[in-house]
Amino acid sequence: MTEIIDGNAVASEIRDDLTDAIETLADAGSRPGLATVLMGDDPASQTYVNMKQRDCEEVGIESHHVDVDGDAPPEELYDAIADLNDDSEVHGYIVQAPVPDHVDYRDVIRRVDPIKDVDGFHPENVGRLVAGDARFRPCTPHGVQKLLESANIDTEGKDVTIVGRSDIVGKPLANLLIQKSDDGNATVTVCHSRTDDLAAKTRNADIVVAAAGVPELVDGSMLEDGTVVIDVGVNRVDADTDKGYELVGDVEFESAKEKASAITPVPGGVGPMTRAMLLYNTVKAASLQEDVAVDLP
Length: 297
Ligand SMILES: Nc1nc(=O)c2c([nH]1)NC[C@@H]1CN(c3ccc(C(=O)N[C@@H](CCC(=O)O)C(=O)O)cc3)C=[N+]21
Hints:
The chain has 297 residues and is an alpha/beta fold. Helices cover 40% and strands 17% of the residues. The chain has ten helices and eleven strands. It has helices spanning 7-27, 43-59, 74-86, 105-109, 123-130, 139-150, 170-177, 198-203, 253-259, 270-290; strands at 3-4, 33-39, 62-68, 92-95, 159-163, 187-191, 207-210, 227-231, 235-238, 245-248, 260-263. The strands form three sheets. Strands 1-11-8-7-5-6 form a six-stranded parallel beta sheet, with helices on both faces. Strands 3-2-4 form a three-stranded parallel beta sheet, sandwiched between helices. A two-stranded antiparallel ribbon has the order 9-10. Helix 1 runs parallel beside helix 10 (270-290) and helix 6 (139-150) crosses helix 7 (170-177). The radius of gyration is 19 Å and the shape is globular. Bound molecules: 5,10-Methenyltetrahydrofolate. Pathway: One-carbon metabolism; tetrahydrofolate interconversion. This is Bifunctional protein FolD. Belongs to the tetrahydrofolate dehydrogenase/cyclohydrolase family. NADP(+) binds at residues 164-166, 234. It comes from Natrinema ejinorense.
């Protein structure tokens, strides 16, 4: 039987576990604050922002939001960032990607105060992670690690094939999984659009993480029996539904499920974990800035 890993359930447990830490902070007189910044009106980004606000409410994190006009000059976004860096009620914030084409996301990230960088994208935080001294683990890779842990899937000595080399998922996840630690110790292969014979790499894997942003790129024919399959893809494809679209992963679920020992669905897999780990990083940011020790799950 293939185990369907329930990301909504694991994310809900993490939110529960975070409430203790949030109470500890409240007792010390501070409430963690998370802000989202959205430049432009990408509909997917708007959905995520709304979901994050609901998550915050549920656990007792104060949520803030800043909209920047999609046609505004980059400086307007930089000003919003400077304001958030100065705002003592905001312990963490993220600038929703993608930003409009006339803005360079790297220039944006460099302006975020690293202690408030709950995405973990600032070069200082990337460097710390690579050096094995992560301050904020990027939310999606961290969520993948927590999902594996929740399903009792040990990564030690395992062959993990990551499909996708993004700065947000593939690269940081590869770095975390090769680290000498209980949630690392894996042998990692990172594949991408120029990889020769992708199927040979996925067939060799004990664990496949699909994070390429290509709908249904990985199917059952590319997997050996017993593989653990983690689907990071959240692709909106046009469909005849109420919303006019359907959410499709980077894995062809039905055929992959026939081979997998465990698999994450889309929706309801990695997505909710990404949001839960954002709350986690926000609590950690508040703990660091307020100098109040907390127990994190
Ligand atoms: N600075 C920045 N940080 C991010 O972390 C970031 C970003 N930009 N840009 C876009 C991606 C994507 N992302 C998702 C988060 C949650 C779900 C999620 O909760 N998905 C639900 C359902 C979503 C739905 O129904 O549309 C699920 O998979 O079950 C999906 C995708 C965060 N990202």
